[in-house]
Amino acid sequence: MVVDRTVTAPEDRRLRLGADLVSGHRLQLGASALLALLSTAATVAVPLMVRDLVEALSGSRGLLWPVTLMALVAIGGALAATISGFLLARIGEKMILRLRARVMDHALRLPMREVRVQGEGNLVARITSDAMMLRSIVDVGAIQLPLAAITVVFTLVVMSVLDWVLVLITIGSFALAGAAIGFVIVRVRRSIIAQQTALGELAQRFTATLAALPTIKAYRAESRAAGSLGEDAAELTESTLVSARLQSLIGPVMGLGQQIALVSIILGGGARMAADDLSMPDFTAFLLYLLQLVGPVAFVASGIGQLQAGLAARARFDELLAIPQETDGGTTSGLVPDRDAPAVEFGEVSFAYDDEPILTGVSFRAPQRGLTALVGHSGAGKSTVLTLVERFLHPESGSIRVLGHDVHAWPLDQLRKRVAYVDQSFTLLEGTVRDNLLLGCDKAPDDAALLEALEAVSLREVVLQLPAGLETVLGRATDLSGGQRQRLALARVLLTDADIVLLDEPTSQLDSINEHRLRDMVDELAKTRCVIVVAHRLSTVQHADHVLVMEAGGVLDSGTHGELLSRCAQYEDLVRSQQWTAPDEQLLSQAPA
Question: Where is the ABC transmembrane type-1 domain (predicted)?
Answer without folding.
Answer: 31-309
